[in-house]
Predict the structure.
Amino acid sequence: MKADPSDQRRLLDLAALDAELARARHRRSTLPEQTAVEDAEKTVQGHRDAVVRARTSVSDLGREVAKLEQEVTQVRTREERDRGLMDSGSVSAKQMTDLAHELDTLARRRGVLEDEQLEVMERLDAAETDLAHEQAGLEAAETALADAVERRDGAIGDLDVLEERRGAERTTLAGQLPADLVGLYDQLRARTGTGAGELVGARCGACRLEMDRSELRDITAAAPDDVVRCEQCGAIVVRTGKGAGA
Ligand SMILES: [Zn+2]
């Protein structure tokens, strides 16, 4: 294949644009900002679970307090009834003894219940503090997630702009070059990732391998409009003068 040396040199611009576009695509698929969003999502989920657990504790303890309150009320009602009977003067001496005995038992029972109630209320208090703490933690995690999403979207937006600009430049440049040259370049690029490289010294710019003497001699001896290829990677080797005589 033959191509004007200046068109061959512009293949290097095309290769630079393609390399930049490939880097952008790679960056898009390995965005650290995306990883940060996923980490922040996990953190938020952890805090949500903690809030649910704390809320369950609060409602369980609240129910326990209410149940104890009810039991205390029942004991009190019974005590009042017994005292009323004793005060009425309408019960026998035997009944009086039984009622006094029951009142002792009820007072002890109420004491136990009230102690228990106090203890559960303290636990409820602690659970409510814990819930408030977990809710604050969740809010902070949600704010961090929103920030991470914003940074991620910003990074994607930057990549969109870059890919659009470089993509348009590439289209324009490829359109200005001979179709057969670009066709070969694209074919090689699809196969190896790099379609063209500059000859620098004895090194192919595409695969970065050093050429041996005879290959270098053949390449430098070829007519300037000959399209020459690297024996190692197959890419078009563009002679810009930096390899001459090396
Ligand atoms: Zn090469």
Q: What stands out?
A: The chain has five helices and four strands. Strands lie at 196-200, 203-204, 228-229, 236-239. The mean pLDDT is 95. The first strand starts at residue 196 and ends at 200.
